[in-house]
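User: Reviewer 2 asked us to show a designed sequence for the structure in our supplementary figure. I'm pasting the structure tokens here. Could you produce the per-position amino acids so we can include them in the response letter?
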């Protein structure tokens, strides 16, 4: 038995050595990608979302690594695909009926090469290890793109906030933080919101952290203005997406004026997108929920934008309510908005909400720009369809980075104990988005002038983290 295992161990070592051979001209890139993915798949079975996120990066970054001597043979991407630390914990709490409930909590501390772990917390029944690992992996690249000193992390629980009372939400947040507070801190790991975690939840989480640790620090972002939050943080993700889309359109001499825009989702991100796209002269005609999508031919503007906040706060998760309130709107049950003809499409709901069929519909209907607002909303084949048809397409890790960038600005304000005006924060946000767009262009521009933003974002995000990891040694 010992002989066999030693032999297979040796085989494994050999296999690994081959993959990391030094830079050379006949480096077979496709084979490298396949071998890399085979190892990642073997290590992370049953994690489809995580593998999808890693593959998207691998196919663009491995060819780049092959052209850079300093990056080959260092297993940089392999190290980035292994969380520095994964914390999984029990979250027991008592509901309003007095019944004990048990949820599973997570914090993935993915990469701290360029700063403390940073990334949101998601409360949703679909939360599992695969989903949070994909989000934490994406976050590492996204945070790097912002140019701010933030590593990558993500957390959450399989808790469903829908239908829960305010007291239940508070007790759950307290139970979650009772464990998480042992692993985070303003110089270690700074969580924020994500799906199912907004200002209310951040407040309860912050209160519990402060009580247990007896520290008032910027340990969370997305805080209320009264206790260290930043102006513009609620709008930041959506505004940033639209600033990014504006830059994409500019590359072909266009802007938002008169453009028909399809948006999915109706949460915080969708709200910010609709607000800014409308302000810039676009006409947003759709939003969506888990129940279907709304088509409003008159455009979602004015009081309808404010209604989105009400819709979200209702906790009903029903886009249909919008059509009941505004007669100009039609509700399409069980469908996604990608069948509607538009110039600009902005998926702002959740992962894998835009598939190949949807991409085909959008392209056939003449879409010119697809700017992701959610994290990984498009499947890989949908992305390839956009790229193949030379549609302007940007991945969420680039275009939605304005949210976490503004979290970074909140951290700065907390550290210097000052609050900036909304104009100042907005100006910095815009500058950061323009900078990310430029980085994507620099690394993603192809010979015919088309910008492959997927390639650009992945390589630009990779380079900063890789440089820091190389400088810090094998740790
Ligand atoms: N959850 C957001 C994201 O996906 C924000 C994270 C943060 O502000 O830390 O980037």
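Assistant: Here is a per-position design you can include in the supplement:
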């Amino acid at each position: 038995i010992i002989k066999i295992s030693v032999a297979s161990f040796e085989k494994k070592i050999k296999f690994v050595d081959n993959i990391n051979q030094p830079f050379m001209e006949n480096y077979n890139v496709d084979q490298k990608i396949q071998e890399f993915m085979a190892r990642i798949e073997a290590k992370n079975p049953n994690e489809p979302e995580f593998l999808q996120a890693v593959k998207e990066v691998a196919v663009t970054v491995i060819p780049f690594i092959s052209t850079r001597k300093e990056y080959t043979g260092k297993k940089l991407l392999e190290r980035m695909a292994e969380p520095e630390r994964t914390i999984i914990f029990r979250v027991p709490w008592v509901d309003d009926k007095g019944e004990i409930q048990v949820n599973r909590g997570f914090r993935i501390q993915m990469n701290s090469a360029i700063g403390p772990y940073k990334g949101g917390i998601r409360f949703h029944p679909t939360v599992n290890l695969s989903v949070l690992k994909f989000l934490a992996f994406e976050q590492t690249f996204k945070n790097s793109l912002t140019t701010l000193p933030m590593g990558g992390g993500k957390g959450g629980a399989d808790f469903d906030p829908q239908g829960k009372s305010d007291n239940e939400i508070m007790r759950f947040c307290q139970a979650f933080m009772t464990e998480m507070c042992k692993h985070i801190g303003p110089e270690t790991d700074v969580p924020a919101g994500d799906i199912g975690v907004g200002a209310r939840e951040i407040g309860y989480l912050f209160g519990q952290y402060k009580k247990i640790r007896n520290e008032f620090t910027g340990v969370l972002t997305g805080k209320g203005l009264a206790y260290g939050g930043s102006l513009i943080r609620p709008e930041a993700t959506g505004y940033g997406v639209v600033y990014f889309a504006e830059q994409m359109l500019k590359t072909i001499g266009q802007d938002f004026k008169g453009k028909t825009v399809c948006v999915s989702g109706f949460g915080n991100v969708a709200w910010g997108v609709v607000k800014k796209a409308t302000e810039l002269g676009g006409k947003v005609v759709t939003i969506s929920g888990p129940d279907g999508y709304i088509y409003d031919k008159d455009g979602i503007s004015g009081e309808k934008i404010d209604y989105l906040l009400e819709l979200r706060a209702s906790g009903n998760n029903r886009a249909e309510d919008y059509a009941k309130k505004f007669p100009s709107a039609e509700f399409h049950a069980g469908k996604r908005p990608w069948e509607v003809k538009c110039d600009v499409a902005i998926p702002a709901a959740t992962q894998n909400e835009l598939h190949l069929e949807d991409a085909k519909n959008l392209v056939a209907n003449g879409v010119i720009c697809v700017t992701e607002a959610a994290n990984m909303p498009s499947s890989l084949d949908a992305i390839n369809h956009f790229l193949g048809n030379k549609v302007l397409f940007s991945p969420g890790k680039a275009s939605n980075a304005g949210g976490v960038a503004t979290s970074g600005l909140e951290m700065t304000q907390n550290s210097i104990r000052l609050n900036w005006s909304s104009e100042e924060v907005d100006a910095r946000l815009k500058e950061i988005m323009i900078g990310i767009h430029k980085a994507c262009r620099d690394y993603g521009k192809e010979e015919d002038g088309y910008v492959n933003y997927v390639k650009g974002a992945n390589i630009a995000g990779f380079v900063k983290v890789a440089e820091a990891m190389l400088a810090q040694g094998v740790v």
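For the response letter, you might also mention the following. The CA atoms of residues 289 and 319 lie 5 Å apart. The mean pLDDT is 94.
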